[in-house]
Design brief:
four-stranded antiparallel sheet, binds zinc ion, about 80 residues, alpha+beta
């Protein structure tokens, strides 16, 4: 699920972490040549990416978990 970046912080290893609108976080490393995100190295670059949507895999997995829990709860209520 795509979620907009609403902020940033540094983790304990000094890697940039994007804070997403859904409340989840996602690393936005600049680690060439595998991951090229030169924008994350500058304040201006990070500001320019506010509102940019990242694919939040935590949202996708959370939805799957919620669906499972929902059906379990329904079964429990009927019993
Ligand atoms: Zn999310």
């Amino acid at each position: 699920m795509y979620q907009a970046i609403v902020g940033y912080h540094l983790d304990s290893e000094q890697h940039w972490v994007a804070e997403l609108r859904c409340g989840h976080t996602q690393h936005v490393r600049h680690d060439p040549p595998w991951t090229n995100r030169p924008w994350v190295m500058t304040l201006q670059g990070r500001k320019s990416m506010l509102g940019y949507e990242l694919n939040c895999k935590q949202c996708d997995s959370a939805e799957a978990v919620n669906t499972t829990r929902q059906s379990e709860t329904d079964t429990g209520n009927k019993t």
